[in-house]
Amino acid sequence: MEWETVIGLEVHTQLATASKIFSGASTTYGAEPNTQACAVDLGLPGVLPVLNADVVRLAAMFGLATHSTVATRSVFDRKNYFYPDLPKGYQISQLALPIVHGGYLDIDLEEGGSKRIGITRAHLEEDAGKSLHENFHGMTGIDLNRAGTPLLEIVSEPELRSAKEAVAYMRKLHALVRYLGISDGNMQEGSFRCDANVSVRPRGQAEFGTRAEIKNINSFRFVEQAINFEVERQILLLESGGTVVQETRLFDPDRHETRPMRSKEEANDYRYFPDPDLLPVELDDDFIEAVRRSLPELPDARKARFVSEHGLSGYDAGVLTASRELADYFEAVVAALGGQGKLSANWVMGELSGALNRSDCEITDSPVTAAALAAMLERIEDGTISGKIAKQVFEAMWNGAGSADEIIEQQGLKQISDSSAIEGIIRDVLDNNPKQLEQYRGGQEKLFGFFVGQVMKATQGKANPKQLNELLRKLLDS
Amino acid sequence: MHQKTLVELAAAMQKGRFSSEELTQACLQRISNHDGELNSFVTVAEEQALAAAKAADARIKAGNAGPLTGIPFAHKDIFCTRDIKTSCGSRMLDNFIAPYDATVTQKLLAAGAVMIGKTNMDEFAMGSSNETSFYGAVNNPWDKSTVPGGSSGGSAAAVAARLVPASTGTDTGGSIRQPAALCGITGLKPTYGRVSRYGMIAFASSLDQGGAFTRTAEDAAVMLGAMAGFDPRDSTSVDRPVDDYRADLDRPLQGLRIGLPKEYFGEGLDAGVAAVIEAALEEYRKLGATITDISLPNTHLSVPAYYIVAPAECSSNLSRFDGVRFGYRASDPKDLEDLYTRSRGEGFGAEVKRRILIGTYALSAGYYDAYYLQAQKVRRLIRDDFMRAFEQVDVIMGPTAPSVAFKLGEKADDPVSMYLSDIYTIAVNLAGLPAMSVPAGFSAGLPVGLHIVADYFAEGRLLNAGHQYQQVTDWHTRSPQGFA
What we know:
The complex is a heterodimer. Chain A is an alpha+beta fold. Chain A is built from 16 helices and 16 strands. Chain A has helices at 39-42, 53-65, 163-180, 220-239, 285-294, 299-310, 314-320, 324-337, 341-358, 370-381, 387-398, 404-410, 419-432, 434-441, 448-458, 465-477; strands spanning 3-14, 69-70, 73-74, 77-80, 90-93, 100-108, 114-126, 130-132, 141-143, 150-156, 192-202, 212-217, 247-252, 257-263, 273-274, 281-282. Chain A is elongated and about 95 Å long. Chain A starts with a strand and ends with a helix. Chain B has an 11-stranded mixed β-sheet, sandwiched between helices. Chain B is globular and about 65 Å long.
């Protein structure tokens, strides 16, 4: 039987606010346990939540960027369950009336083309704390620094049909929240993580199969692995006559498998009800329009502009707009150069990205700034150095040897463009290699490259390649 | 000294007749002499009170005293107080010392009031007799074999016995007005949102409201003036200026339109109580008020709706008492489940558990619509009843409670009968309106309270109606035998 995979993702994005969603405590990551938890975060008797207005603005930005409706009235609910790192015994979330609903995101498919994925809703909620099981001698430690951190939970329609589509969607979402500046998207620190609802059904069947929910996956690679494992597990189960149980599963990245966490029978009854401590969030059109005006240029629009304005291919424009920082860098190079989109794109996507990857460096921390790279590209343009020498110059710049001009000067990398000087060197090379000259003139024309190499060797690569080619051909053929 | 009202005491201190320290000493002495019979205090904060009194005396000397400066008051043990235990009448919080002050605590301290101690109450404010407290029942000073009412029973008894001139309370379904009635004093429950709930341990968040016990309406005006106001830490507090509640006290009642809901005078109302209310209404007629019969047709739905909404909210509000971070923790828990079940099982009393169970049930999947959602709709109907009534009348009057103080233990095993003792007060909380109870006479030797309800934020009108009545009657000056 041929099976079809059905996936819906719930992505939890930590919103980039200075303080928590319902208290004034800091959200900075990595502090000593329980040093960033105030009375409200600890759920002490008598304390009350007060909504952080910034959270509402960031959620509205997301809604507008995904063509969703930003609700003029949304309501916070209590989701009741007991857990040691959940201080109040309930989580404040939004159930019936989320702040954002009914939008979409277009993803690029590997096989070409794009696909529209519906965004069912995005709601605001507070994060829980962390249970620490190590170093407590059979006990559990609780760190509530994270409790009350603002999250936007983004729920997709079950319209993803493969692990690859799921990853493409998640990457697109990741780039979007970073573009918008509403989240730092840091996956190691848990600022961007997802739950995947996965089921399979015989191709052509209208009803969905029974789904399993894989919780808390915090990397793109793990999402792909977890979904692939889960799909295979469900198909094997169904083909051997079994049935899929609706349950929550955990992905074990060491074993590359999912394992059951709790089944539907054990599931909590969360007893949701509107939180009486908080008023409904009411937004007027003026507020929503002001947020709309504050939106930066979004990835899809920027990509289209890179194609039309800078003459890039769709592929290159897609790569360069995958993150806001990369696109900003590219545009800064082009601006400094006053054009040369293609040349700039090649260098940003080539040498620069390679160097960043090798040293595991973020583009915002690049030792070669956009202005410095542009200054070097200028020297290629004006013929001072060749593209090949430029790679050497770039490497020196990367290692902190100075500006392109300083390096060219200090290392004497300036291109030799004096025809008589090049001609003299060519003559020396031809004189020193009579055998090869004879073979070439006997018809072995591929030895042309040998002579080029010898001249380059003699000039340490500095001969102007165009002039060298012309002069060499002239002298060989004369 | 102890027979003086708050306003009289403040005036005497201003004139230098006695100091706040002397007054505070006198209150401490009365507590020490009499509270053994009443059990109205959980904690007496002698040291802090005397320090606060000295500071108040300095302030009075410096000439920047307010109407509450140097006035001793008792604080219901539901308001958090930094460095002083806040038990909420529960074993669960017998060891709890809040690291912060409630907003009401802060405001009263800023006004220079002297907090003398924390008063006994029904556990987590759940009860109408003060019998559910971990610290034992409170006795009504009028008859020590009867209850003082609840849940703010300690606060009411302490003022009735002249241990303190004023105290704070909270009112979720009648917890200020019913004990005020049963103890023969004045009790004011402001509009929902008028007094901050921050630091006031929650029972039912959408109903809870802080207020005050005093002997007179005039004193209540002073207390409310200090306690009320918008609080950015409480999203449900209302951002609206605080009225000068004393400004309107002297306005004549000529032309005041009083509504009498026929539903408040039906079956279940004690005949002696009804007679006292009739007499009180006659006084109002003499003061120039007109009295109209009105109807609040959904009154009968208020007790059932309340006993869905309040337990539902409390079941969630009390989840934080889990033995993990503060409060009671069972010894040697085997595992997490055992830690939860025994900490809560041992830390909470029977009435609290009953309400948590009712509330959990009402919010459960499959029951939510039938119970909680339905109760919220009923709330709207009850509110609409009042809104229609206030198109015709300025205030609504009736009995605060259907009977006078009942015997200790009489209703302890009959929760439904206990719940019905709040039948006249509960609808007011469901609607969020302000209301007060003023002493109106006696039946069978025990005090009867007159219940006055006004429109939203019309506390000034309530206090005016109470004050004018107290100018022509002396019920509020009567003190229980043995406490004169």
